[in-house]
Amino acid sequence: MPYIQTVQLLESLEQQLKINHLWSIQSPSDAELASVAPFACDTLRFEQWLQFIFIPKMSMLIRTQSPLPSKISLAPMAERVWGNRAELAELTKLLAVLDNLLTGQ
């Protein structure tokens, strides 16, 4: 399992979200976090989903040495959500690297 590389990418993801002012200081409500829609798209912005659902879940999987997801596709969602924002291109590339790492494990 590529735990070390995944931890490094998650740390980079957090940094990039902060650099791009997409990191929230206020947590969404429990109801918003309970969404069952893909990426919680009905209750959260994509960056909120990354911060409050994806990063914590991946961190827990790594801490417990549990299997990491092998079918992951974050970059296409980032392109859909942020595609017209050139300043977020590096963030989208980072998600593509994470996709490739986990899909190729």
Automatic annotation (TrEMBL):
Location of the YqcC-like domain: 6-101
Signal peptide: none
Record-linked Gene3D superfamilies: YqcC-like
Protein name: YqcC-like domain-containing protein
Species of origin: Shewanella japonica
